[in-house]
Design goal:
The protein is 31% helix and 25% strand. The protein has two domains: 152 residues, Medium-chain alcohol dehydrogenases, catalytic domain (Quinone Oxidoreductase, Chain A, domain 1); 150 residues, Rossmann fold (3-Layer(aba) Sandwich). By secondary structure, it is of the alpha/beta class.
């Protein structure tokens, strides 16, 4: 099969190459997915640029995809053959990511895809939506660790970076679950996307009056804040957080944040950190179950797509690294 891979860290155009490699075979508890479209996330270019040592002589990048199961390993029901799926965490501790014509993953990492949902949308689900789900559970604290219509009724949620992959997913899932969602963005074009995703109010974080506008909207404070830039925004977030509220971050900045301990302690606030690779099987299961239900309900909307052929995978990585608005997808093998 054809696959994109790299043998060492470095710039996309220097280390990514196409190879013909043997078709992988699923082991016990695994399925093999014929990949239609592979999603590119910031974590992919970061791992390629300066990630940990490779788990094998080469690494096929990318965690997410949409495709069809074409082989199952021992212990997996034969009925899963030919099932349309969305794939997550394909490259977590494994050499075989989704930037290839096929990938083998644990059966629980290939989730049923509703018939009316495209592979294009499927390839944008995994990392962003699972991360967003966990952030919302920690930030807005539903009655259980699950999201569903009404689960966040009466809660107010601030989503920073409401048109990024995780931010957009958080806006959609929180809105679907009944929260009042406020999103911050950096342009009028992004404001339109955040509104379409379900944000009740959208603010331009570049406005000189942003802090005052956010404080006015916050009222008694936000119950939860999903944060993409903790160092830059922590002081402002602390000022608009409700008593017993929570700030949850899933990304890092070069500088470490200065924590306003007195303010956060005074309101009995919580500061959480989310990294999808460290989630438990139960957390992952809760997230994928809820995302699949929301998907089937038509509650999730994909970001504008940017498609690249597999031969241009380095360009795809560069597009994500420079922060292109929308979802970058790599075309592997088109399917009906």
């Amino acid at each position: 099969m054809r696959a994109a891979c790299y043998t060492h860290s470095g710039p996309a155009h220097e280390v990514l190459e196409l190879r013909d490699i043997p078709l992988p075979q699923p082991g016990p508890g695994e399925v093999r997915v014929r990949v239609s479209l592979s999603g590119v996330n910031p974590t992919d270019w970061k791992a390629r640029s300066y990630g940990p040592p490779l788990p094998s002589p080469f690494q096929i990048p990318h965690h997410d995809a949409g495709g069809i199961i074409d082989a199952v390993g021992a212990g997996v029901a034969a009925s899963r053959m030919a099932e349309r799926v969305w794939v997550m965490l394909a490259a977590m501790g494994r050499p075989g990511g989704t930037a290839a014509e096929a990938t083998c993953v644990p059966a629980a990492h290939a989730l049923p895809l509703p018939d009316d949902v495209s592979f294009e949308q499927a390839a944008g689900l995994g990392i962003p939506y699972v991360t967003a789900h966990r952030c919302l559970v920690a930030a807005a604290r539903p009655p259980s660790a699950r999201l569903a219509p009404g689960a966040l009724a009466g809660r107010s949620v601030l989503v920073r970076g409401g048109t990024g992959a995780v931010g957009s997913a958080a806006v959609q899932l929180a809105s679907w679950a009944g929260a009042h969602v406020v999103a911050t963005v950096g342009s009028p074009e992004k404001a339109g996307i955040a509104t379409a995703s379900g944000a009740a109010q959208v603010l331009d974080h570049r406005s000189p009056a942003h802090a005052d506008e956010l404080a006015e909207i916050a009222g008694h404070g936000f119950d939860g804040i999903v944060e993409v830039a903790l160092t830059s925004n922590l002081a402002c977030d602390a000022a608009v957080l409700a008593p017993h509220g929570a700030i949850v971050t899933y990304a890092t900045e070069p500088a470490e944040p200065q924590v306003p301990v007195r303010r956060l302690m005074g309101i009995n606030a919580a500061l959480h950190f989310v990294l999808v690779y460290g989630l438990t099987a139960e957390m992952l299961g809760d997230a994928t179950d809820d995302v699949t239900v929301a998907l089937a309900a038509g509650a999730l909307t994909p970001l504008p797509p940017h498609r690249f052929p597999l031969e241009a995978i380095a360009d795809a990585h560069d597009a994500v690294e420079r922060g292109i608005l929308g979802k970058v997808l790599v075309e592997i093998g088109e399917m009906p």
